[in-house]
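Model the whole thing, not chain by chain.
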Amino acid sequence: MKIAIIILTGLFIFSSCEKVIKVDLNDTEKRIIIQGNYSGDGQVVDVKISLTSSYFDNSTSPNLDNAVVTISDQTGSPQNVPSIGNGKYQLLNYAPTAGATYTMTVVYDGIEYKASSILNSTIAQDPMHIEYEVEEPGPFGEEGEEGFVAYINYTDPASTTDFYQVVTHVNGEQMEKYVSNDKFINGSTVIDYAYGFLKSGDTINIDLRTINEATHDYYVELSTLNDGNVATPANPKYQWSNRGLGYFSVFGSSVREHIIP
Amino acid sequence: MKSMKKLSLLLFLFIATFGFGQNYTISGSIADEGSGETLLDGSVRVKELSNVGARTNAYGFYSLSLPKGEYTLIYRASGFDVQEKVITLDKDIALNIDLVMSKDVQEVAEVKVTAVKENENITSSEMNVTRLTPKDIELIPVLFGEKDVMKTLQLTPGVSSAGEGSAGFFVRGGGADQNLILLDEAVVYNASHLLGFFSVFNSDAIKDVSLYKTGIPARFGGRASSVMDVKMKEGNNRRFGVSGGLGLISSRLAVEGPIVKNKGSFILSGRRSYLDLFAKLSKKKTIKETKLYFYDINLKANYRLSDKDRIFISGYFGRDVFGFGKNSSYDWGNSAATIRYNRIISNKLFSNTSFIYSNFNYKISEKSGTSSFGVNSSIEDWNLKQNFSYYPNKNNTLKLGINVMHHTFKPGSLQSTGTEAVTLKLKNRYGVEFGAYVQNDQKIGSRLNLMYGLRYSGFALVGGTSYEFDNDGKKLSERDYKRWEQVKLHQGIEPRLSMSFILTEHNSIKLGYNRNFQYMHQLSNSTTSTPLDVWVPVSNNIKPQIADQIALGYYQNLYKNIFRISTEIYYKNLQNQIDYRNGADLIFNNEIEGELVYGKGRAYGLELQIEKKKGKITGWISYTLSRSLRQFDQINEGKEFSARQDRTHDLSVVLMYKINKKIALSSTFIFYTGNAVTFPAGKYEIDGQTYPYYTERNGHRMPDYHRLDLGATFYFKERKHFDHNLNFSIYNAYARQNAYRIEFRKNEDTGNPEAVQISLFRIIPSLTYNFKIK
């Protein structure tokens, strides 16, 4: 826990220190990462495929353009998702069937990676609330900020167990992406902090995605990887067969956009 | 005449056979003449018979039955002059002995040869225990002006520190929660202050520390790897005394004296550190308002109601407080209280009844503007114990007893006020842990000493809410139980065995076997343990940890018993080990049992130690070569991996040099292989963020740890009623930056990923003034 660091740095501020060291990670093996997204409401299938890179190597992950990607629902008849370069693959106008289970298959270098995901019904997002707020001064005397704060607004259906992913863009740039579930809010109306502080003229776009449990758990496990102090550093549970990293998310999407006057 | 002879012959045979050779018993206590403290490592031997004698029990009581005759009894204890008593044994005798502390013989270069050779480590029937008596504690190196018994035990083979900034220790590859730490029979859950820097044991108040690593006696149960039994002094019942020390980092004071001379005494001691006073000197506001201190208080009183009855009361209260700025504070600590009653029922039967309370809790509080946040968590134990020691004859000592302990686990209640008021309470759980044991210490012939025993133990979980989960940790059902309704009962039989075979008066072989059940486990959400780690009991999901250990040792004394060499090899098998699922949620989770996975472990190793206990230069070298491995189906793809505490090499070199009556120097050098850790084997990007990619669990090593501590003590002129000295010590004399953690992050300037080592303590000097009014 962070407390250990806090106490001990407090204790020996004169003594503790950091330094950069050389570590031999034995990092030669390369594995595939497939990020598969299918937005039911947008009718778009977006896939990005890349490889792991050596840890201290500063170049970005190498992209793979020559994989064969197909998507199908439970009735069969797979559709090809063509490559559009930079490791990306896209299929437009792929009509969704509510409640269907979709399977994506990626073949690369002779190995087939498969993943499945259910399309849950879209939960509508109500118009967002915008408030003007002034923050309190901090505990050490820092001044508080002020501006417009956007709140997402939706009602969780009581009869189902729901998983969400909220993606927030401000002026075209992605600012937030997080997952949540309805454990504490089942059946309630949610008004939750989305983004602040905004100023006049800013455009805020919130996408409320209904994802399924496997994708939700994947993102939760993924977020612990960058927390330096976890007891179990391990890859999130594999979503793809043959130990492919990444995820396959099929979701309903309800988007609201607002320009601050 | 013939018939008379026949009759007297028959009568003689009759008496010889059925009169048990007319044995009589000598019994009593062995104590320190100066203070009246009973001696726990005292023994009496019979000069005329080989391998015949008795040891004192935990209250200084001994009992020895011999046939009618004349004997020379030799009474001894470590650090005291030997006393001989010639007796004519024709009836039961009560004999209380006061031994006189040996004058400091260290300025004498030659070794004093006494009538009885000092090879009790070879010949003693006490086996498989690492013991620190007050005499030993006097000689250990001093760090920050204090003699720390826990740090000293970590310098012996098979015992390793959990690392800087960590509160626990590992014994023979076991986890930090597998050590039973007792202070006058009360369980201590967190045995250190300031995350491992100081132990909770004030050495001014300690009488005896015994660490059992193998062949653990049957009266102890509840933890898988070791027992650290700490007994407090009773207090000088002959005269008053005050002792203490004033140092740069902490100070301590102890007051002891008689309640009624020779009948009752008390000892009250306390310590406080004041590192935050230095922080107040800082100009930076955040550091100025930092609170960082610990304090502890020990109190013990005892009274002899009669020759046969004695009552003891002891208490401990300690706290660590940390606060950062005005708005956050963390504090935790142990408290314990014990009432004990001894009765000498007959000269062969001794009884002890104890009633014990112990508590460990922590509180966190954070304030920000108008809202506040508080967490409270605790474990509370009530324990009743009854022990008997029975001494039927000179070859056997029988011990039996029973204990029942009630645990209350309050894993936490969270309260926050302000705009989003929340009160969350994790459900309390209750358990009743019990044990019953019987054990015999037997001497066979002149060479073989045997200890064998059996412990029956169990844990019944009662009340609270229990959950059922599937293999993936998803909840299937939950059920509420009434306060005393049983959820699950776990029980087991624990055989214990210890054997020593004396080859010659200079060497011996020892063998030990024990099976231990552990019914409570400590979970940790980080790669180091902190006092805020939660303890969970066994349940319908969690099984008791079971350890089976076997060890074999060879001991040799050399050169007139000046050097002692010991070698031990051990193998330990662990069942029902606990670890966490990937991405486990341990923060405030009522359904925490769904986040756990179960597996097994094994540990084995070789321990070597060479000690020199006499002369101007004393000390020891200890080296352990070992492995500690775990295997879980759901971790590392089911392949065996190194436990975090798998330290291949562990070396300690301790030297004390008493130059003359005025100056003593000490140095400690420690080296151990770094912990096994999981480092990334590559990286990748998801949604624009970079994540590490892992292959093996614990496949990498932290850098090796080593440091040198130096100390010098200057003794001022000794006066009749006043002793004082000045101690100067340096921790980490060559200022090595030992790694506490390695983090992987992006360089702020170049954006390149890099490995950053964080280390805690560099060189820390300290000065302490110690005094004793006697």
